[in-house]
Amino acid sequence: MKKHIVSILVLSILFISCKEKAKEEKTETAPKAAIEQVADANYTANTETSVLNWKGFKPTGMHNGTVAIKTGSLKVNEGKLIGGDFVFDMSSITVLDIPAEEDSNGKLKSHLESKDFFDVANNPTATFVITEVTEGEATLVKGDLTIKGITKSIEFPASLTTTETGVKLTGATFKIDRTEFNIQYKSQKFFDNLKDKFINDEFEISFEVNASK
Known about the structure:
- By secondary structure, the protein is an alpha+beta fold.
- The protein is built from two helices and nine strands.
- A hairpin with a 2-residue loop joins strand 6 (139-147) and strand 7 (150-162).
């Protein structure tokens, strides 16, 4: 009887062992999903589907809108972003938080185009040139931003992904101090006794650039 029980145990162990080995072999031979790498090339931005978003703040609320990308390019080498440059059409600035049909929308747009802010008549474009890209837990893009003829170095996190037509560069939200570009209107750095009528010096920017070869 004991021999019979021992035989059953041995057969059970052998069966389980063979089953586990087969499972391991199946796992080892299973094909691994390929990681799609961004193709090396010089990409041209699609100005119809690419956009820069802005958001400004004040104690009584905020405003947000967009600025169109006039021209742009991205350079990819060994699957990584290594350069690029953009020209923004400042006359295309829009206000999204106020209905387009309201007079206040047009008034704010005109004010943003005036000398109080971007002085579009004398500075119809702004530019950004990538100078360095650092890869790590997050991709950091560093470059020179020029607004109203003043150039400052800025840095922000971004991601580069493949699309059906090329690549997409997405810039996470980051902040810029407008006073560094001589936009002083209602800034507490330059004007006293504004009370709650001041406008925050920092405004937010994010963007999405779709580009193809």
